[in-house]
Design a protein that fits this description.
Layout lengths: L1 H10 L3 H18 L6 E5 L14 E6 L10 E4 L12 E7 L8 H11 E12 L4 H15 L20 H10 L2 E9 L8 H6 L2 H9 L6 E8 L29
Parallel strand pairs: 1-2, 1-4, 2-3, 4-5
Antiparallel strand pairs: 5-7, 6-7
């Protein structure tokens, strides 16, 4: 898994990687700003400060190896499939491209469900196989298996390691774990080009894609909430005090 993370880290230094990081950073900032609680945890990808807009007092970054620096309050070394937290102890979990670079992504989701508090949120981002980027990646892998390398067509566009998970598959996994889908967004509609110059020329496609072919974005962004059957979130126990009604005043009958 460590090699996979290094491959992903190197890819994020490229022009398309920087383009994708900028879009995801904006999405994370908007998604976590109004999620309240005490404990928040980001699993992997230190290139993104996914919790910087969140106001919880305890925020952690969990990585499979010792990080050089952490943008959050605390960084810890932990496996996403075996989190060192008790059940129902985390209010917010963020998984930026964590599932697709895990050996057992379904087990990671089960661990997420275990540590989340009832009504806690999980935010997930991942590469969309049903996109221009995913199609180019799939074609390159097919040509590599066939031993064809015409004019660099077999060159992979996205990181080599990792098995990309379609959003339709992720929705099924979330449903099985009682994680109810709250919102789903797609982004990064520009073609699979390598240079920043050509990415900027196709900038108009982001607005067009958002309107006309929304589910074909290169990356998807999902927010889900943990539902527990038979549990109802209660409001405050106090009730506003009502002003005492004025006592009736008797009027003497002059007769």
């Amino acid at each position: 898994m460590t090699d996979s993370l290094h491959s992903l880290s190197d890819w994020f230094d490229t022009a398309p990687g920087q383009y994708l990081l900028a879009w995801e950073q904006d999405r994370f900032d908007l998604a976590v700003a109004d999620i309240f609680g005490f404990n928040a945890l980001q699993l992997g990808l230190p290139q993104l400060a996914t919790l910087r807009a969140n106001r919880m007092p305890h925020r952690w970054l969990a990585l499979p190896e010792v990080p050089d620096a952490s943008p959050l309050n605390c960084a810890l070394v932990a496996d996403a499939a075996a989190l060192p937290f008790p059940e129902s102890s985390i209010d917010l979990l963020v998984l930026p491209h964590t599932l697709e670079f895990s050996a057992d992504p379904h087990h990671v989701l089960r661990e997420v469900e275990r540590v989340l508090v009832p009504e806690g949120r999980v935010v997930i981002s991942g590469f969309n196989p049903a996109s221009l980027w995913g199609a180019r990646q799939g074609r390159a892998r097919l040509m590599q298996r066939m031993g064809i390398g015409w004019f660099g067509a077999s060159r992979l566009y996205l990181p080599d390691a990792g098995a990309f998970i379609g959003p339709w598959r992720l929705r099924d996994w979330l449903r099985l774990l009682s994680l109810e889908l709250e919102s789903e967004r797609y982004g990064c509609y520009r073609p699979a080009v390598h240079s920043d110059k050509w990415l900027q020329r196709y900038a108009w496609m982001d607005q067009a894609g958002e309107r006309w072919w929304r589910i074909l974005g290169a990356v998807y962004f999902v927010v889900a909430v943990k539902r527990v059957r038979g549990m109802r979130v209660l409001g405050p126990a106090w009730k506003p005090r009502r002003a005492p009604a004025a006592a009736p005043v008797s009027i003497a009958n002059r007769h």
